């Protein structure tokens, strides 16, 4: 057996340690021999550790909010053990049968220790175990479906209180979700069960932190599809577009050269029957207003600060404008445009086409707006216009072809991944005016198939003489030409023109099912022209880009942006002033 010190030395050392404050750290005491102790009972080191672990586990069980700190439990543990050893009494714990409410950080009084039953000391926990809360009434019923409104509302977290770090700790499957928290669709549908909502507003940001090592190593102008950190690569694409789908809004309108623009363009660009605004807005105008700059400012004013004008091109009175979301401007390449006139006298630029091409990530886009030859019987001339445009439109010039194996030099539409061609094609219905009106009166709802059987464009497309490879969404709206200005009545002049579908939006893609149609409709509320605008909304497949794509470096029309926002603010201030005047001028009539 090992030689132990004398009992007197041990007793002196024990008394000296007992005088120390329980909150003051002290060196470990020497081991005590068996049978020695103030109370005739010794507690081994293993038992101390086992008791402390039991105490900590009980604290966790009785502290669901986990507000008790580890330092507090150590202090109380040291205090209770020190008092117990110094007095030679067993550990003092509260009774378990009749727990009385106490403050978590308070210790028990000496009177409780005196009246406590020594046989039940070891059964007392270190913390008071409160009985579970009982609800006073029944809970409202919840649907079994996880997508139910009531269940989602129960666990919904405010969009500016999202715990981004908590979301990122849920596993590898949540990494993509954390990278795409800036997407409004994810914010609106996010549900969390156990995230704190008290300390997040000032702690977390939508902006991801950037490490100095990443700044040193990352170059946006280098890296291929599989390159790590490439600006147009798969990682960045999945971060902004988890489904790899881009929302595109296309509008075409023959303005009839009117000087006066509509008072409000919201119905043209922001219809109320859609849930979300699109990522890209492309507006093509034929016979545009004389002041093209004013038209672009009005577009910017309507779309607001979320969008910037990427590019605008014109060919006479043909206008083509492209707006993109402000946070997506960095993923656009340089923009190119080209024009073609179909008139014999080229300086009269009322008929022809203007095209804009660019690459977004690794997908190339071509947008063409055109105005073909008018006349009910001039179908052949319109086909000639089409053939001239696809051969003479010189695009792309500096942009690389994303798929050169499918391109042909005789057709510009084969040199881009996704092509949208829209405008006033001037194709008519091969029916007399009276017969067309009779069919319009007979058709039920949105079924326009009886009219479309006589459409010149659909007939020529089926025969393959025009718009080869193009598609058109189903038409469920009445003919858009020709109306009397300011009303919904078709032409009442002496010419009595036959109502026709002259304004169309067609699309073509290299890969099948790349373009999905969301909506295809006309805007009946804008009546300043004899044409009604036609609107199309699409979801387009995106692919990662390569390092050979020349970036646009975030260029946009800054002066147009500032002027449009200034007008938008002025308009809102005028509305508020008018509302205040109406409120001040209102009187209350009383009857005596």
From TrEMBL:
It holds the Pfam family Exo_endo_phos2. Residues 244-546 form the Inositol polyphosphate-related phosphatase domain. Its EC number is 3.1.3.36, 3.1.3.86. The keyword Membrane applies. GO terms for cellular component: axoneme; Golgi cisterna membrane; nucleus. Signal peptide: none annotated. It catalyses: a 1,2-diacyl-sn-glycero-3-phospho-(1D-myo-inositol-3,5-bisphosphate) + H2O = a 1,2-diacyl-sn-glycero-3-phospho-(1D-myo-inositol-3-phosphate) + phosphate; a 1,2-diacyl-sn-glycero-3-phospho-(1D-myo-inositol-3,4,5-trisphosphate) + H2O = a 1,2-diacyl-sn-glycero-3-phospho-(1D-myo-inositol-3,4-bisphosphate) + phosphate; a 1,2-diacyl-sn-glycero-3-phospho-(1D-myo-inositol-4,5-bisphosphate) + H2O = a 1,2-diacyl-sn-glycero-3-phospho-(1D-myo-inositol 4-phosphate) + phosphate. GO terms for biological process: phosphatidylinositol dephosphorylation. It comes from the Eukaryota. One of its GO terms (molecular function) is phosphatidylinositol-3,4,5-trisphosphate 5-phosphatase activity. SUPFAM superfamilies: DNase I-like. It is found in: Cell projection, Cilium; Golgi apparatus, Golgi stack membrane. Residues 57-72 have a biased composition (Polar residues). The chain crosses the membrane at residues 306-324, 353-372. It is a peripheral membrane protein. The keyword Transmembrane helix applies. Its main location: other. Residues 1-150 are annotated as: Disordered. Keywords: Cell projection, Hydrolase, Lipid metabolism, Membrane, Transmembrane, Transmembrane helix. Residues 10-19, 103-124 have a biased composition (Basic and acidic residues). Interacts (when prenylated) with PDE6D; this is important for normal location in cilia. PANTHER family: 72 KDA INOSITOL POLYPHOSPHATE 5-PHOSPHATASE, PHOSPHATIDYLINOSITOL POLYPHOSPHATE 5-PHOSPHATASE TYPE IV. This is Phosphatidylinositol polyphosphate 5-phosphatase type IV. It comes from Sinocyclocheilus rhinocerous.
